[in-house]
Design goal:
single chain, alpha/beta, Rossmann fold, 5 helices, 5 strands, about 20% strand, globular, binds 1,3,4-trihydroxy-5-OXO-cyclohexanecarboxylic acid, amino-acid biosynthesis, 3-dehydroquinate dehydratase activity, DHquinase_II_sf, EC 4.2.1.10, aromatic amino acid biosynthesis
């Protein structure tokens, strides 16, 4: 089983960015934790972060034949990107939407997601653990 973890814009700044919302954990720490869980469960995991919408679209398109599950935090593209939504629909790979912060307790423009209605699951407001919960869910479904 191959899992791809995608992080959108500004998530490369985790650990330094708006700590009140996103905490102290770096993206590399999150990835390390997921890699350890994947290894324990004999699962292949790969990571991709980009600040560019088209690069995320390209990555999703290229996942078509070898990725079985996607965990994605689209960052601000959550609230804007029809093209990333369409890419996920086009490849038809089951995906989990993760947000570190609770987007529903924040500004109104963050309350709408272009992904939630087509996601296998949505986790928000649980900080870095959200990624872990999504991965554990994929693993449990496989068993
Ligand atoms: C976020 C929430 C988004 O609204 C925001 O634009 C982000 C991060 C989160 O993880 O809480 O960049 O997706």
């Amino acid at each position: 089983m191959n899992v791809l973890v995608i992080n959108g814009p500004n998530l490369n700044l985790l650990g330094t960015r708006e700590k009140d919302h996103y905490g102290n954990t770096k993206l590399s720490d999150i990835e390390e934790n997921l890699r350890a869980i994947a290894e324990k469960n004999a699962l292949n995991i790969s990571f991709f972060q980009s600040n560019a919408e088209h690069e995320i679209v390209d990555k999703i398109q290229s996942a078509l034949n070898d990725i079985d599950g996607i965990i994605i935090n689209p960052g601000a593209f959550t609230h804007t990107s029809v093209s990333i939504r369409d890419a996920l629909l086009a490849v038809g790979i089951p995906f989990y939407e993760v947000h570190l912060s609770n987007i529903f307790s924040r500004e109104e423009f963050r309350h709408h997601s272009f992904f939630s209605d087509i996601a296998s699951g949505v986790i928000c407001g649980m900080g870095p653990l959200g990624y872990q919960y999504a991965l554990e869910n994929i693993i449990n479904k496989e068993k």
